[in-house]
Every structure is written in structure tokens, then in C-alpha cells.
Amino acid sequence: MPPAEAHEAMHDTTHTERAGRYAAESSSIRWGIVLNAVFFVFEAVAGVVSGSVALISDAVHDLSDVFALSLSWLAVRKAGAPRDARRSWGYHRAAILAAFVNSLVLMALAGFVFVQSYARLRAPEPVDGGIVFGVAVIGIVVNGAVALRLSRHARSSLNARSIFWHMAEDALGWLGVLVSGVVLLLSDFYAIDALAGLFIGAVILRGAYGVLRDAAEILLEATPAGIDPQAVSDTICSIGAAMGVHDLHIWSIGSDTLALSAHVIVPDMRLSASEELTAQIQLQLAAQYGILHATIAYETEDTACDLPH
């Protein structure tokens, strides 16, 4: 198969696979919304009845999970929409914006949890350890189940990864609540409830920072992690008549959509020869680096542009 046709076939296959991933991711997120909405109501009631600041704090966090999941679900639905004249790249960054917003919300909620837990640490109050223990077990099961289902999408989607960390770190946070419940069943050390709340806040903050950093990198069009621009330049120069590369830019449109533009120095050649070279470069970049959108501008040594871009 000629390089141009091979690249086009790879491009079409990737778009078809991406549409399937969006549908599967949307289904998993919708399932998580229902489970977390039900669990939020249950946990809020349990927190009020038991007097546990750890349960009430995590109930507020669970409400944010419902919001985050809903926002992510809408973003995935939008990301799968076809491109138009004004948005030639489509809506891939809708999911990145959702992840960015979710991380900011998580950071704000971590602050709320810290404040509430610190206040309770200074003035501990009696807590029903049995209720705390029971809710913690259910919390681990619910959040663990949602995290497990989202984990299959987390590698290819930053949006799914942001929600996965919501759920996975909720499950880990519940381990802290579980320990709190056990201690309260065996003693009157009520401060453990506030300490568990501080632990949950720290776990939330850690996950939020990672997602915020990755989303910001994409929005700022930084070179994607794991791609070495010099290695890409060397790859291009090893193909056909390519002699050099400058003004190389590599960025992410979405979690799994990479783009590149570059000026490639070549000998003086016919247009048909440059088209063949372009197809070879695009095919190699797609196969080796997953870059499916590569725009190449050719220059000869005599006409190479020295101006910064």
C-alpha cells in the first residue's frame, strides 16, 4: 500500500476507534453518576446521625464527584461531536477543560475538608463508630467498583483519569475512615475522626494536583510527555531526502490526539516527490509516535527561514 493510502487508512481507523472509546467511556461515567448520587444521600444522612465530620466531609466530596462525573460525561459527549468550520479540530479539548475544572473543584473541596477537620481536631465530639465503620465498608465497595470500571479508560483519556482518581482516591480515603471507625469502636479517641478527615483532604489534594498539571500542559500546548523533540527530528531526517528540521512544534489536541508542524530542509525537488516524502514522514510519525496530524513545510538550504516562529 502506498504511504499516503496507508496513512489515510491508519487515520480513519484511529477515528473509528476513538468514537468507540468515547461511547464506552460515556457509559462507564453514566454508571458512576448513578452510584455516587445514591451513595451521597446515604452518606450524608449517616454523617448527620453519627455526628462524624469525616462522613460529612466525604459526603460533600461525593457530591462533588456527582458534579465532576456529570461534567465529564457531558464533555465526552461533546468531544465525540463532529468538527465544524469554526472548530476545525473538533471538540477534543472539551474533555480536557472538564478535567481542568474538576481538579480545581477538588482543590477547593480539599480546603473545605481541612478547615472542618482542623476545627473538629481542636474540639473533638463523640462519634458513633459503628455507623462510621459500616459506611466506610460500603464506601470502599462503591468507589472501588466505579474506579475499577473507569480504569480501563484512564490510560487513553485524561478526562477519564481525572474521574478515576476521584474514585480511586475516595476508596483509599475510605480506608482512613475505616481505621477511624475501628478506633472509635475500641476507644473514646474521638480525635481520630478529625485525623481521618485530614487524611482524606491530603489524598484529594494530591490527585487534584496531578490532573491539574497534566490538563494545564495540554492547554498550554506543551510537548506531550514521553515524546522527545530531538528524537522526532532525527526520525524525520532519516526519511528520504530530508536533510534537516527546524521550527518543530509538537502538541496535544486532546488526551490521545497529537499534532505536529515542522519546516523540513530538502534538496530542490519536484512537487510530486515532496508529496511522496510527506506521506512517508506522516506514516512514520504515526506508527512510531502516534502523531496522526503532521503538517510539513519544505525549504531548500538556500531558502531556509531563519526567523523564529
Descriptive account of the structure:
There is one protein chain. A 3-stranded mixed β-sheet has the order 1-2-3. The chain has 309 residues and is mainly alpha-helical. 41% of the residues are buried. The chain folds into 2 domains: 3-219, Alpha-lytic protease prodomain-like (Up-down Bundle); 229-299, Cation efflux protein, cytoplasmic domain (Alpha-Beta Plaits), CATH 3.30.70.1350. The longest helix is centred in the first third of the chain and has 48 residues, at 3-50. Helices cover 70% and strands 9% of the residues. Helix 1 (3-50) packs antiparallel against helix 2 (53-79) and helix 1 (3-50) packs parallel to helix 8 (271-289). The two termini are 35 Å apart. The radius of gyration is 25 Å and the shape is elongated. The model is unreliable at 9-16 (pLDDT under 50).
**CATH level-3 fold name of the largest domain:** Alpha-lytic protease prodomain-like
Q: Tell me which CATH architecture of the largest domain applies here.
A: Up-down Bundle
Shape annotation: elongated
Number of helices: 8
> What spatial order of strands do you see in the largest sheet?
1-2-3
Assign a percent range to the helix content.
over 70%
Mean pLDDT: 79
Largest sheet: 3 strands, mixed
Q: Could you list the spans in which at least 5 consecutive residues all have pLDDT below 50? A: 9-16
| Level-1 CATH class name of the largest domain | Mainly Alpha
Count of discrete domains: 2
CATH superfamily of the largest domain: Cation efflux protein transmembrane domain
Broad structural category = mainly alpha
Reading the helices and strands in chain order gives HHHHHHHEEHE
The number of strands is: 3
Using the CA coordinates, give the radius of gyration.
25 Å
Terminus-to-terminus distance: 35 Å
